[in-house]
């Protein structure tokens, strides 16, 4: 696969991951009171600090994914964040209703899979279609 094709695929992967986080940040911001109530019901500590932090992580993470800025660090941060949200937000082991538990299991493992995608970005970097790619030093050799 050529570098241009690889960069295009990495760009599409970044955008696909970003959509989830940008949408999430927007919905949490628009329904802020409900979001805070959800965090409180989940037993998240320091909700007055956690709620805006979550929105900031999702918003900035989504923007950085789209533009390809500091993707190795962003990938690692969002992988950790996504695993944490799986554990705190999709705790299927505490759900007694069978239908709801199945739904929570799916969402839990979906988050783990998304974290895997972020770990891949941590290793591959942003690709050529990115701020990181534009800032990378170029050698005079063309292979």
Structural write-up:
The chain has 143 residues and is an all-alpha fold. 77% of the residues lie in helices and 0% in strands. It has six helices and no strands. The chain has helices at residues 3-30, 32-41, 47-67, 71-89, 98-124, 131-135. The longest helix is centred in the N-terminal third of the chain and has 28 residues, at 3-30. It is globular. It starts with a helix and ends in an 8-residue tail after the last helix. The model has no long low-confidence stretch (mean pLDDT 92).
How is this structure best summarized?
InterPro entries: DoxX, DoxX-like_oxidoreductase. Helix content is 77%, strand content 0%. It contains six helices and no strands.
Write the layout of secondary structure elements.
Elements: H1 3-30, H2 32-41, H3 47-67, H4 71-89, H5 98-124, H6 131-135
Organism: Paraburkholderia edwinii
InterPro entries: DoxX (IPR032808), DoxX-like_oxidoreductase (IPR051907)
Family: Belongs to the DoxX family.
Name some characteristics of this structure.
143 residues, mainly alpha, 0% strand
Oligomer: single chain
The unreliable regions are none
Helix content: over 70%
Count of runs of 4 or more consecutive helical residues: 6
Give the N-to-C terminal Cα separation. 13 Å
Q: Could you tell me the radius of gyration in angstroms?
A: 17 Å
Class by alpha and beta content: mainly alpha
- Largest sheet: number of strands, sense, barrel closure: none
What's the domain count?
A: 1
Total beta strands: 0
Whole-number mean pLDDT: 92
* Estimated share of beta-strand residues: under 5%
The best one-word shape is globular
Reading the helices and strands in chain order gives HHHHHH
């Amino acid at each position: 696969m050529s570098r241009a094709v690889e960069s295009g695929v990495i760009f599409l992967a970044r955008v696909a991951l970003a959509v989830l986080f940008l949408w999430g940040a927007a919905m949490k911001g628009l329904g802020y009171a409900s979001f805070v109530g959800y965090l409180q019901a989940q037993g998240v500590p320091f909700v007055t600090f956690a709620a805006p932090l979550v929105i900031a992580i999702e918003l900035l993470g989504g923007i950085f994914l789209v533009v390809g800025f500091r993707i190795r660090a962003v990938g690692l941060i969002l992988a950790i964040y996504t695993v944490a949200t799986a554990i705190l937000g999709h705790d299927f082991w505490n759900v007694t209703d069978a239908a709801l538990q199945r739904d929570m299991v799916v969402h839990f493992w979906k988050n783990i899979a998304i974290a895997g995608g972020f770990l891949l970005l941590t290793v591959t970097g942003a690709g050529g279609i990115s701020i990181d790619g534009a800032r990378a030093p170029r050698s005079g050799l063309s292979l």
